[in-house]
Amino acid sequence: MKRYTRQALLMLLMCVLATTPALALKVLPPPAHVSVQHGWIRWLPAGLPAAGYATIRNDGDTPVTLDGADSPDYGMAMLHRSVHKDGSDSMEMVETIPVPAHASVQLAPGGYHLMLTAPKHPIQPGDNVHVRLHFSNGTTLDAAWTVRPANAL
Amino acid sequence: MSSTRPWRPLLSLVCAALLAACSHAPLPWQLNDVGGHLPDLQFDLTSDAGKPATAADFRSKYVLLYFGYTHCPDVCPLTLVHLHLVMQKLGADADKTRILFVSVDPARDTPAVLHQYVTAFDPHVTGLTGTPAQIAAMAKRYRVAFNAGQRQADGGYEVSHSSGIYIFDRDGRARLIGTSADSADAIAHDLKLLMEQEE
């Protein structure tokens, strides 16, 4: 009786061990025909929020929609847009960024960008950090983005 | 003879005035000429070195004044990068100028954070912060609007702020105004013109 219980527990434990890593490491497929190029982060000191820029290129026949991002190197990654209006500059959060078929979208200074906050470890210019872009069709695109100095062009 | 043409002296006067006007053709500024329309440089703030700072500390320098804040990862850095390029384009004349980055977020921008932020862009930048009342007085003087947005879940907030870059001559007089959208070439062009005109 006692032995069966122990065996049952052991089997349960094995099941948990077998499935947990699979769930944790489940990698969503990258979107077909979509690539991220020239990803970079403008480094700022004192762990201040940093902006991430890249070109997202869609060589496919169907539009895709960027709807979020995350990074193992930052606590949070948000889609943002800078708005220059009536002599004033401000930032706003955006829910989605469409990438039309056979077109590119620029995340570039003064426009769309990722806002990366709460770095999980000290980050310096020259480092590479990982950024994973999420698309509305459930796919993700993971790439190494280069950390460049504050005054990079 | 002279009595029959009494308008002659008047005519020569008009011609002289026209000639004088021609020799003072408007200068080809690329930014907006605000000479006489904005108050002289004046403030009472704290520098990024943690010391009291007033406009008198920057007399004899051409001053580029910009309002921003350190929790601004996109437009403020972009503007400071433009100003960094301007300094590079000025070459040795860069030492005649000073960029003043005034925080509109004094609650978060301590002199220490501000110092790390501004020095990451260019050695010609001085960060300035102060009490909310001091910042409000400075903003009012230059008709700069700013406001802190709603707090986010993580306690952060965004600040909208004027995109103006105010340029003062060495006597602290407001001369030109550009924006974060102006190119480094346009700003460098006008600074050189201002220097040529004064020297």
Describe the structure in your own words:
- The complex is a heterodimer of chains A (153) and B (199).
- By secondary structure, chain A is α+β, with helices and mostly antiparallel strands.
- Chain A has a single domain (34-148), classed as PCu(A)C copper chaperone (Immunoglobulin-like, Sandwich), CATH 2.60.40.
- Helices cover 15% and strands 50% of the residues of chain A.
- Chain A has one helix at residues 2-24; strands at residues 34-42, 50-58, 64-70, 74-85, 88-93, 97-99, 103-107, 112-119, 128-135, 140-148.
- In chain A, strands 1, 2, 3, 4, 5, 6, 7, 8, 9 and 10 form a 10-stranded mixed beta sheet that branches.
- In chain A, a hairpin with a 2-residue loop joins strand 4 and strand 5 (88-93).
- With 199 residues, chain B is α+β, with helices and mostly antiparallel strands.
- Chain B has a single domain, classed as Glutaredoxin, CATH 3.40.30.10.
- Chain B is 33% helix and 23% strand.
- Chain B has helices spanning 8-23, 75-90, 111-119, 132-141, 184-198, and strands spanning 32-33, 44-47, 52-54, 62-68, 97-103, 125-129, 146-148, 159-162, 164-168, 174-179.
- In chain B, the strands form 2 sheets. Chain B has an 8-stranded mixed beta sheet with strand order 1-10-9-4-5-6-2-3. In chain B, strands 7-8 form a two-stranded antiparallel sheet.
- The model of chain B has no long low-confidence stretch (mean pLDDT 87).
- At the A-B interface, strand 4, strand 5 and strand 8 of A face helix 2, helix 3 and strand 8 of B.
- Strand 5 (88-93) of chain A pairs antiparallel with strand 8 of chain B, so a sheet runs across the interface.
